[in-house]
Amino acid sequence: REAQDKMPIYKGLENFKLLDKMGDGAFSNVYKAVDIRTGQRVAVKVVRKYELSASQAGDKHLNREFKKKPRVTERTNILKEVQIMRGINHPSIVKLLAFFESQEHYFLILELLEGGELFHQIVKLTYFSENLARHVILQVAHGIRYLHEERGVVHRDIKPENLLFDKIAIVPSKNSPTKQFEEEKEDEGEFIPGVGGGGIGRVKIADFGLSKVVWDEQTMTPCGTVGYTAPEIVKDERYSKSVDMWALGCVLYTLLCGFPPFYDESINVLTEKVARGHYTFLSPWWDTISASAKDLITHLLCVDPAQRYTIDEFLAHPWCNAAPAPAPPPT
Ligand code: ADP
Ligand code: MG
């Protein structure tokens, strides 16, 4: 109730009652909301059209004044995000239900995913067992396969914060990493069955704010070409898809051990590590993880994009097909 009192009121969003804030960005806020006309629970992503002037941006108590200068890049970006999402229909991808705008905001009405970010599940669980990691990563991979192969879309921002759980699946007790959790779920922690196998629910890809179409659906050729496609453009298209595969490798690595493959306090050092593709399977955390999982990661965290696995190569890898394999998402 208290939270509701603090919910902002957006002109143009009168048909929706905001319940809870779920996400916070530089230019967007995401709320849990209910469509008053239908009772449907949704997520609303509110994107501000105008920049706040620098002096006012941080101060809630000042009478804010918008610079009435549309953020042109933001405008084209948000419309691109919406256009890409409109063409998408897959169980591993967050659905866009509606889009509209007011004078000062854009509103994306999205399918509500109440399970929270994969990021938070990793933090809560410390790390995932190989079976649980497989269950999660295969759902993401099928979403990426659909984007890459059927829609010609590169997501470009695959990361645990943009991977959302459908339902709250696991509330672990203290000191209950997943490995233990799976074996002792009857008496360890509270277990809430999810939709999919393995107890943990469906995972969906969100946030198409940086995504890009690289494949023209009409002509079935790389974008902007009509048949006389130069090799560098064909390569370019393949390489741009490979950024998602690198990111998928980072997510898989993080799921299995609980920390990311590349990390440093200093952004410069971190950048250097990534550029060199310098990571290790750190002992003791990686000692008990299968050689097959490590082999798969090696083919994803591979500096040369031409050598890096494509999504089809990923899905064909033995680790992905090891039992117990979850059923592919229904289409
Ligand atoms: P940004 O461009 O600001 O990163 P996102 O689309 O990633 O915007 O949304 C920000 C955060 O809001 C996400 O990381 C997630 O926590 C939450 N969020 C976004 N979409 C949904 C949704 N459909 N259901 C539940 N939470 C969501
Ligand atoms: Mg995001």
Automatic annotation (TrEMBL):
Lineage: superkingdom: Eukaryota
UniProt GO MF annotations: ATP binding; protein serine/threonine kinase activity
Source species taxonomy: Eukaryota, Fungi, Dikarya, Basidiomycota, Agaricomycotina
Residue stretches making up the Protein kinase domain: 16-320
Binding-site residues for ATP, renumbered to this chain: 45, 161-162, 207
Annotated catalytic residues: 157
Annotated keywords: ATP-binding, Kinase, Nucleotide-binding, Serine/threonine-protein kinase, Transferase
The organism of origin for this protein: Fibroporia radiculosa
Crosslink feature (Glycyl lysine isopeptide (Lys-Gly) (interchain with G-Cter in SUMO2)) location: 159
Protein name: Protein kinase domain-containing protein
